[in-house]
Amino acid sequence: MEFIAKSISMKKTMLKWLNLASLLVAANTLAQIPRYELDLQWPQVPMRGNWLTGGIGGMCIDRDDHVFLLNRQNVVGADLDGAELAPPIIELNPQGEVVRGWGDSEVLGPRLHDCHVEQDGSIWVVAAGTGYIQKFSHGGSEILLRIGQKGTFDSSDGSRQGIPLNSNTAQFFLPAAIDVDKDTGDIYVADGELPGGNSRIIVMDKEGQFLRQWPLYRTNSDQGITPLPHCLRLSNDGLVYVCDRQADRIQVFDRDGNFVKNIFVKFSAVSSPLGRISGGRGSAVVLAFSSDEEQEFMFVVNQNSVMIDVLERATGRVITNLGNGPGRYRGQFTLPHGIGVDSRGNIYIAEQEGRRVQRYNLVK
Asked: Are 340 and 360 contacting, i.e. CB atoms less than 8 angstroms apart?
């Protein structure tokens, strides 16, 4: 009986320590979830000269944490009685002050969509409505490189004249996103943001010469899902992340285009989907990585839930969200379309229909 009593006591002790260990693991996991606070003082408004912005089609951040906004200039005309139309490219400093604005909309092209700032301050700009991507000097006074060929885009049927589709050349049809390999200088472009586009990832060298291309990955079960590569970002560990918008997922490739895995981003409709179009915007539309070297977290614009999903990059698990759903009040979003992270870990969300940018500061 004494032996049995001791055995029971040992089991109770072991269970106690196991429960304590589980609680410590859970607490440690919770402690690792990043926390953010909406910065109500950023950016500073009104912007210079009482500037009025249209939809912000995209954004990027340089090494000095300056934020570049792509202003589509689609404003309500009557509002210009009380404001001045802001230029297509707006540069803001970390304090939210306007540094400069520049750009000729005729040169930049329609449907500004993404940008990337090089280490020397030069900036790549992608306009989905053109047949090329362009690299500008810092401040935009000079075009340093133009890749592709301008064609005639007909938005009514998605056709373009003079641009061969799916060709082994550095020509584009509805380009959506750009990133540059910091080690090689190779340029990666997600080419085809709407149905009828090239629907490929194209890689060029730093001079714009074609190197390779690959399509979004499809199996027999998902051949019917339209491949729309809407975003693209390179991770520090040699992977290429692409938003497979129509499939509500992110596809991961190596730099040679070999498929690695899918990361599905789900959502649940709050209102009944009966009698209306539901889930058509996409749950994985644009993404950015956290600023740590390992890029532990990934921030994904979910246009279906109209929130920012925070994922563990390694597992694809959603651990938290940013935003309070659709709306025009602080902390809400109206068609978010661009996202970036600065060196301090703060997150910036640009809105196309909301026509603004908001910052969430990392709470340390």
From this structure: no
Q: Is the pLDDT of residue 92 over 80?
A: yes
What is the CA 161 to chain-centroid distance, rounded? Answer: 29
What predicted TM-score, i.e. pTM, was given to this entire model? 0.89
* Structure tokens that stand for 87 in this block: 């230029």
Residues 242 and 252: their CA atoms lie apart, in Å, by 6
Phi-psi region of 49 (alpha: psi -120 to 50; beta: other; left: phi over 0): left
pLDDT above 90: residue 351: yes
Q: What number is the average pLDDT over the span 151-173?
A: 59
Half-sphere exposure in the Cβ direction for 180 (13 Å, CA): 23
- Neighbouring C-beta atoms of residue 9, cutoff 10 Å: 10
| Neighbouring residues of 51: CB distance < 8 A, sequence distance ≥ 6 | 83, 84, 85, 86, 87, 90, 98, 101
Which band of pLDDT confidence, cut at 50, 70 and 90, is reported for residue 26? very low
Nearest Cα residue to 359 out of 44, 30, 117, 33 = 44
Best CA proximity match to 70, nearest among 43, 108, 41 = 108
- Any residues with CB less than 8 A from the CB of 130 and at least 6 apart, and which? 109, 110, 148, 150, 151, 153, 172, 175
